[in-house]
C-alpha cells in the first residue's frame, strides 16, 4: 500500500519527507516538486505518485511508472553548498536508495552503477535525476531529486527489458512501497547531513565504493567529453577532448564524486558525471 499516511506512519526523520504530497496519477513528480518549491515548499518536501505518466530519466529518456507496482518520488532540497557541488547529490541519493533497499529486504546486496543507477542482481532497479534551479539574481533556488524505483514490476518494455529489473524479479520478495520510501528517506537524511557538513563525499566515500558495481573491473567509457587528468593523486589543470570510446579499469570515486579510472597506459583519469556514460565491457554492468 502506498500513501502519505502509510509512509508517515513508518518514518523516523527530522526534516526529510515530513511533508508528503501524494498523487494517484501525475505527469512528473519532478515537475510537481518544482511547482511546490516555487510556492515556498520547505526543504525536505516529498512528492510521491502511484502512477507517473511522463517521467524522465537521464539524457532525456523516459521512465515508466505503472500504477500499483513502482515508486516515483521527488524531493525538494534547498542545499547549503555551492553550485559546483550539486552533482554529488545524485551520488548521495544513490547510496541512500541502495541502503534503503537493503533495509527493506533485510540483506546487503544492492550495488551502484556510477553515477545514478542502483543495481540488484545485475539489473537496474532505480534511476535518479537531479535538477538544479537558480534564482534570477543568482544562487541556488532549489535542487529537485527525482527517484524511480522498480519495486514489484514484472513486465518491462522491450527497449529496457535486457537491462531493467525490480526488487521482485531479482529477489522474489514483494516489498511494501511505503516502507521502502520511509527507509530511503531516513538514509538520505543522515547521508545528506554528512554531505552538507563537508561539501563533499568524504564521509560517505567508503560506503559508496563498497557498493560500486564496477570497482576493480574493466569498463567502457562512452561518449566522453572533457575530463581532467590526474597524476600521482594531484589534479592537473590541462584538459583535453577524448574522441573515441575507451576501455579502462574502474578504481573508485574521489571525494568530489568523480569516477577514478586507470587507462591502459597507466594514466589515472578523473571523470565527472554528466560527461560520460560508463558500462561494463560485455554489457550493462
Query: Which ranges are low-confidence, i.e. pLDDT below 50, for 5 or more consecutive residues?
Result: 224-243
Whole-Å distance between the termini? 32 Å
Number of domains: 2
Question: Per CATH, what is the topology of the largest domain?
Answer: BirA Bifunctional Protein, domain 2
Q: Helix proportion of residues, in percent?
A: 10-25%
CATH architecture of the largest domain: 2-Layer Sandwich
- Pairing-aware structural class of the strands and helices? alpha+beta
Cα gyration radius (Å): 18 Å
Q: What name goes with the CATH superfamily of the largest domain?
A: Bira Bifunctional Protein, Domain 2
Compute the number of strand runs: 15
Largest sheet: 8 strands, mixed
Folded structure, characterized:
This protein is an alpha+beta fold. The protein has 2 domains: 4-210, Bira Bifunctional Protein, Domain 2 (BirA Bifunctional Protein, domain 2, 2-Layer Sandwich), CATH 3.30.930; 218-280, SH3 type barrels (Roll), CATH 2.30.30. The protein has 6 helices and 15 strands. The protein has helices at 4-8, 29-38, 88-105, 167-171, 177-198, 205-210, and strands at residues 20-26, 46-56, 62-65, 71-77, 110-113, 117-120, 123-134, 140-149, 218-222, 226-231, 234-241, 246-253, 259-263, 268-271, 277-280.
Note the topology:
Layout: H1 4-8, E1 20-26, H2 29-38, E2 46-56, E3 62-65, E4 71-77, H3 88-105, E5 110-113, E6 117-120, E7 123-134, E8 140-149, H4 167-171, H5 177-198, H6 205-210, E9 218-222, E10 226-231, E11 234-241, E12 246-253, E13 259-263, E14 268-271, E15 277-280
Parallel strand pairs: 1-2
Antiparallel strand pairs: 2-3, 2-4, 4-8, 5-6, 6-7, 7-8, 9-12, 9-15, 10-11, 10-14, 12-13, 13-14
Helix pairs in contact: 3-5
Amino acid at each position: 500500500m502506498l500513501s502519505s499516511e502509510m509512509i508517515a506512519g513508518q518514518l523516523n526523520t527530522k526534516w526529510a519527507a515530513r511533508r508528503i504530497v501524494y498523487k494517484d496519477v501525475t505527469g512528473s513528480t519532478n515537475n510537481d516538486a518544482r511547482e511546490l518549491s516555487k510556492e515556498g515548499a520547505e526543504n525536505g518536501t516529498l512528492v510521491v505518485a502511484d502512477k507517473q505518466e511522463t517521467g524522465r530519466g537521464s539524457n532525456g529518456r523516459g521512465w515508466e511508472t505503472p500504477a500499483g507496482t513502482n515508486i516515483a518520488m521527488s524531493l525538494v532540497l534547498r542545499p547549503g553548498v555551492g553550485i559546483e557541488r550539486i552533482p554529488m547529490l545524485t551520488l548521495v541519493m544513490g547510496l541512500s536508495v541502495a541502503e534503503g533497499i537493503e533495509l527493506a529486504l533485510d540483506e546487503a546486496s544492492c550495488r551502484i552503477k556510477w553515477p545514478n543507477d542502483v543495481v540488484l542482481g545485475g539489473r537496474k532497479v532505480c534511476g535518479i535525476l537531479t535538477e538544479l534551479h537558480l534564482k534570477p539574481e543568482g544562487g541556488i533556488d532549489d535542487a529537485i531529486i527525482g527517484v524511480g524505483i522498480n519495486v514489484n514490476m514484472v513486465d518491462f518494455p522491450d527497449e529496457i527489458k535486457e537491462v531493467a529489473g525490480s526488487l521482485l524479479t531479482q529477489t522474489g520478495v514483494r516489498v511494501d512501497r511505503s516502507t521502502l520510501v520511509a527507509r530511503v528517506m531516513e538514509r538520505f537524511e543522515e547521508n545528506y547531513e554528512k554531505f552538507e557538513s563537508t561539501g563533499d563525499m568524504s564521509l560517505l566515500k567508503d560506503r559508496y565504493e563498497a557498493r560500486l558495481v564496477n570497482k576493480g573491473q574493466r569498463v567502457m567509457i562512452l561518449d566522453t567529453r572533457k575530463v581532467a587528468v590526474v597524476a600521482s593523486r594531484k589534479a592537473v589543470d590541462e584538459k583535453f577532448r577524448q574522441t573515441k570510446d575507451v576501455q579502462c579499469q574502474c578504481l573508485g570515486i574521489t571525494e568530489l564524486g568523480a569516477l577514478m579510472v586507470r587507462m591502459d597506459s597507466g594514466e589515472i583519469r578523473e571523470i565527472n558525471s554528466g560527461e560520460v556514460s560508463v558500462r561494463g565491457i560485455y554489457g550493462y554492468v
